[in-house]
Predict the 3D structure of the following.
Amino acid sequence: MAIPIEIRPVAPNIVRLHFGAGATRPSRLLVEDAPSVTDWKMDEGADGWSVSTSELTLEVDRAPFRLRLKDASGDARFFDEPNDRDIRGGYHHFPTGHARGLRWLTAGLKPDEALFGLGEHFGALNRRGQAFASWTVDAFGVRSDRAYKNVPLLLSSAGYGVFFDMTGPLYYDLGQASVAAWQATARADHLRAYLIIGDGIAPMMQAYHRLTGAPAVPPDWSFGFWISRWGYRNREEVMEVARRMREERVPCDVIHIDPYWMRYHEGHHGDLEWDESAFPDPEGMIAELKALGFRLSLWASPYVPLDSEMRAEGEQKGFLLKSKTNSPSPSGGGQGGGLALVHGFAKPSAAVDFTNPDAVEWFKAKIRRLLEMGVAVIKTDFAEDMPDDAVPHDGTSAEQLHNLYPLLYQRAAFEATKEVHGYGLIWGRSGYAGSQRHPVHWGGDPGCTFEDMAASLRGALSWILSGAAFASFDMGGFFGIPTLTDPPSPELYVRWSQMGLLFSHARAHGHTAPREPWAYGEPALSIFRRYAQLRYRLLPYLYAAARRAPEGVPLVRPLVFDHPRDRATWHIDDEYMLGSDLLVAPMFRPRGSREIYLPAGGWYDFWTDRRFDGAQWITYEAELETLPLFARAGAVIPMGPDLQYVNERGWDPLSFDAYPAGDGVSEMELTDDHRRLRLTMRIDRAQLRLEGGPLDYVPEIRVHRSGRPPIEGRFGQPIDFS
């Protein structure tokens, strides 16, 4: 049976491929439904067609049907693979085609090709050789191929990307059944994909953002430290932690309360109403926290308790997902009859129907009431378990809505926060394509082990390579597993906290035990305080880097993002860049050595100023108090004052740490909500040029030198480099 095929360039480096029904069907994922480019041409020959823009050519052969995506020089980046067979003639992967309600795309793999993306998965960052389904689920940890966040964006080291504009289930075989090809299979009546050309990950990420939206930049205070546990049970516990944080001089900005702030708090659902027996006078508590410099985060869920007033109201107004079977509720009493129910927990729940605009406004109104009370941010937990028998308001099938549901849920909370506070922010667990528009996301429920710490880092970096700009994880691990304990060992807590405090966003969170640093004794408390203080001094650097997110440059990223042509970086998922100038190599053991890869260029040990040449592996010895950290030669890193919370006062006075490159030139640009500075330092002089509001003081500068003490001086004064 023949099916229609549509090919349409939508940008100089993006071409849309749609085969099957519904070519004109609107997208649920694109921010602009039909981007287009007018400067393209089509040629037809005896063997097929070619469609060209200034940056790519897509060739389509008639028989057999075959695709080739070429760059402007004529080199094939992506090519269909119709002949992936064994010696008997049997197929490893069938050629691109369709059958029995399935549509699939089969592409050849070059011998040295690496593949990245597809969401937050916890295995090796290079996806080649893996196979898994794109079906959002509660992953119950970070050790399997289950994923809280699936994103149908595949990026190749060969210089192409494929974004599948699909919400239903996809299955990827990424060179597992055969080393010669990868295949993506959709269970749908069509397959729509955007093929992207790009020299490196950054331009392909920018193309993806053009389709699905650029990342939003969270408020500056969100880059402070967040403290949480599952959970603070009453107001006294919250205030005790807040006061102790200040007494211990551990910088902190956000205290989060998990489900126990609500009347219904089984751990997976809630009614968004305060339990004032445990948290009396919540406005007074919020004011008391504010006086200490803390903001409050509250837990939420899209699941509604069946015995709550929220369920009765939502059902009466038609704001909850209905069941196609119209089955009675297992809770008895007729509650929830006719509703699609979320199972798998101690009690079943109803679920908000986010395809209904009125239901969205109803949910947002409940969130707004909390925000107007002074709550700063909502933790949008769960959303991976949308009922399979649901009949959504807008007619979308449950299967097609499943992966999309977290995006709709989190968008509602994000928009409500922006409407009330002027900034957009959530703390979300699940996600899909487009979730980068609604940061920040954390990585689910890791166990308290070094193995889970490493997996959490891989998951976060994979999320970043799937279009996100910001990420976090539960510092210390979330839960104990058989034969292991929660809390984590003090050594694990320290190592995870060092990594977390030098990451995009920093939150400590645990299941049954505290995650406050004093719970782990000395030296854990002192080490934690040291790295928290360093994070806060780095705020000018972190926030300036964060503001590049809309340009397609994530705050944290794996080495391959900055060094895509260095094949060594294709397989490194236990190091990362923090901004463009700091390289972090976490320790996954209490002490000892680890191998660290330093990309091309010069690198300074942040602690000793020892200089290393890049494009090589080094062996690094580290005691518990030391996190391997390197500054790029040529960097100028702004440092702010010591703070106990982000907005305690302005980030002045600034000072600058310069790490000269071989040519003696260091450059940086510093932007925040108040200023824009551009600084150039040369080996024989320091020069500061201001654009925007001037500083009313002369900043200090420290010029680092390998094997010698730093040179200290001030701008506008001669500095002797001899």
